[in-house]
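Intended use. Records like the one below are meant for learning the mapping from a protein sequence to its folded structure. Do not use them to infer anything beyond what is encoded.
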Amino acid sequence: FRHQADAEKYGNLPDWATVEELAWSYPNPPPREQEPWCRFVGPAMKGLKRAQDPWVPSLVEPGQPWAIEALTIPGNTQDLRLIAEEAHRFPKLQALRTRTGGDVLKGFVPPPTVKTLRVSLRNVRVDHLEAASAMNIETLELGEGVVLERGADGTLSKLSVRHADTNPMLLSELAKMLPQGLIESVTFERATATPRHAEVEPALQAKVRKAGEASPLPKAGTDLSGPKPLPKQLVTTALLALPGGEVLLVTNNHGMLWVDPEKGQVVRELPQTPYTKAALLPNGQVLAFAYKKITWIDPTDGRELEQLPTAEMNAAGMVRGNDERYVSLGRFVLDLEKREVIDAPRGASLAALVSPDRTWWVRSLDYQEGFRLFNDANKKGVVLEHAKAFHVPMVLGDVLVMRTHDRLAAWSTTDGRLLRSLELPGERVPVVVALSNDRRRIAVATSREELKVLDAETFAVVTTIVWPDAWSQAAAFSADRRKLFVAGPNLVKGFDIG
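Structure written out for the chain above:
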């Protein structure tokens, strides 16, 4: 189906009842707001037994259970959650295959009839295998050519490799990742194998369990719920302080993590998420941005409440306005009340930032010159002093505050004058800035080892925090401004700041 008109015209023809196997072909990316129609699946397709890439939200709509036995989806955490919650809609489902990474396995409980799961071989980790082995499945497929089945000890430890369907570089990475003793046995199907495939075989055979060794994987039915240690080498893109003392991390490599900062433990996780920016709204919901998509999220469990498509591929930040109704995400503004995107004002289509009230914007015309401020009184723009780079913008009344290449600076949004600045020593200073809810305090990383809490109006230092991790990545104030939470690659910690 190319679009909604195709789906409405052809999607409910009675002849669909005779189709048992169907694969959906659609543009990537689909036309705006048309993906549900390009992947349309309706009640007329009740005879399906093997389905590849249907629209999962339609599969779980109320109606008769599906006869689907094998389901392949592009794969994301939200789709798998829907399938798990509506398992009764798939009474005959035996094989569930995705094309995404193993992060989706963590926390996922497949329908009880499912015996085979598939995820990508690329970037598979031990914790992915642990999650799969604890499930009540018989087979885990890693891509098309690598299969793990239950061994004599009940874990997923019998490895078989079909070289014809496997990249030898990915096999080599798998061999490096597997702990000693995880494999009970390994077999190879060598049709069309290359010399590079043959080179990998000894590395995999070396991981076969020796006499007396126990598998590091859990048996089927093992309960893996409960607090877990914080993963190492986190890449955090947003840190949100939640009511009750928990913090929510949005990361590039471990999805969304709910963390108890006092214990340093992960309380809950939503492993695979596409979000690159996130902010906590006044109503308690989380507003998140991903490629061409804005999402409202329930902060208690990560459930997606509503989505809004947009043409934007990236967002410079999430800038609250003086009126909480509007949030700027770079060159476009979001009306939170109407749940709609407001286009940039005339002349601002290439702006790095449009103000939430759409009365001024910031744009770079020349790399050497830096950024300029534009408004009705300055149609040609005023050069912002020291603004050679543009990070973490904030709006405080008629003042723009942001982190530049070498300082934290504040300018008048009326005439572009530099009002104050805090120069940062050295070049390798983490780009970490946070604003308190009452807009009276700003936290900024001033070196690899410290952060300073400033008075937002004067930039006077209120307190200094010594940071014990290698690098700070994000910070957030508690709602009452008494604590500052900081996240690094190996640590999340709260500091009392009074």
